[in-house]
Predict the structure.
Amino acid sequence: MIGKKTNLSDYDPKAVPDASKYSIGVIAAEWNPSVTDAMLKGAVDTLRENGIKEDNLIVKRVPGTYELPYAAECMLANNKMLDAVICIGCVIQGETRHFEFICQAVSQGLVNVSLKHGRPVIFSVLTTNTMEQALDRAGGKHGNKGVEGAVTAIKMCQYSDECA
């Protein structure tokens, strides 16, 4: 039996393309900052480790996760040279259905933006039951979803190159 993988963000650096020719935007929600700040740092550090040039990296903040689709739309509409956008957020289950509405709207909104612009929009949004689960996935025992988003963005940029 294969053991359960605990750090979901482990990746083989040799399997990640050189990011030096790509321009990538990162948008992070301010809500749940102990989570989103760690994910943002993980994403930016990973992009830098894989060669992105500082002039090709745009980082913006928005109030909450719900605002990510609009911010991604604006970022792609105003920056025609961007190859991808990583959207970072965290929605934690509460006692009401608010969680469901936010998660559905954000996920569908980001898909729509990606398809409209023909560029990858990466969903690095945690949708957890508890703050502990979120922290475990924002640099804790299960890795950092921001790192995963950065790796995905770079790989999707290469994929986009191959589709062109």
Notes: The longest helix spans residues 98-117.
